[in-house]
Amino acid sequence: MPWPDPVTLSATHATLRPLAPEHHDALCAAARDGELWRLWYTSVPAPEGMAREIERRLALQAAGSMLPFTVFDGAGRVAGMSSYMNIDAAHRRVEIGSTWYAARVQRSALNTQCKRLLLGHAFEQLDCIAVEFRTHRLNTQSRRAIERLGAQLDGVLRAHQIGRDGTLRDTAVYSITAAEWPTVRSHLDWQLTRPR
Q1: pLDDT at 90 over 60
Q2: Is the pLDDT of residue 1 over 60?
Q3: What structural domains and CATH numbers belong to the chain?
C-alpha cells in the first residue's frame, strides 16, 4: 500500500489538493503568470507540456515515489504545484519539492502556509524522521525561502544533475528533522500570524 495516502491540506492562505487531470487548464494559467518555464535554473512545465507533467507526477504517485498536489490560494484559485517526492517509506523520509507558484502569489503568505501544512502532516501524521528540500545552488530566491522556513543546509551535491540546457546542476540539500520540528513549527506559526 502506498505511503503516504493522498490527502487535502487546508488553512487560511492555501489549500493543497491531490493533483488531478482536471486541474490542467488552471495550472496552465498559473504557469503563464510570470512565464515560469523560462527560468533556466528550475523546471516548471510550459503550458503545452502541462498534460505530460500531470501524467508524469501521477505515474510517480502510482509507483509510490511521489504524492503530488495542486496548490490553491486563499481565494480558491489554482496557484501552482507542490509534492512530497523521493518518498522513503522504510526510513519515513520525504522531500518537499517540484514546487512552483504563479508570480501573483510569490512572496506572499501562500508558500509559508503550504510548507507549514506539508511539514505538519509529514511530522505529525506520517511520523517522518526528516523532511528534505533541494534546489539549484544558484536559485537564490528558492534557497532564501527554504532557509526562512528554518531548514538547515546539509550540503551541496556538486555536478549532481544535467539541466535541460546541458549545464550541470549543483544541488543544495536542506532538511528539517523531527527534533527540530517543534521550534520550526512555532517559527512558521509566528510568521503566519505576525502583523504585516
Answers
A1: yes
A2: no
A3: 9-193 (3.40.630.30)
Is the pTM here over 0.85, yes or no? yes
Q: What pairs with residue 132 in β-bridges?
A: 95, 175
| DSSP letter (8 states) at residue 194 | S
Q: Positive or negative CA dihedral for 149, 153, 154, 160?
A: positive
Grid cell in block for residue 46: 510550459
- pLDDT of residue 145 exceeding 80: yes
**Dmax over Cα atoms in the chain, in whole Å?**
45
List Cβ<8 Å contacts ≥24 apart for 51-59.
51/21, 51/24, 54/19, 54/21, 54/23, 54/24, 54/27, 57/19, 57/81, 57/83, 57/98, 58/19, 58/21
* Peptide bond between residue 195 and the one before it cis (omega within 30 degrees of 0): no
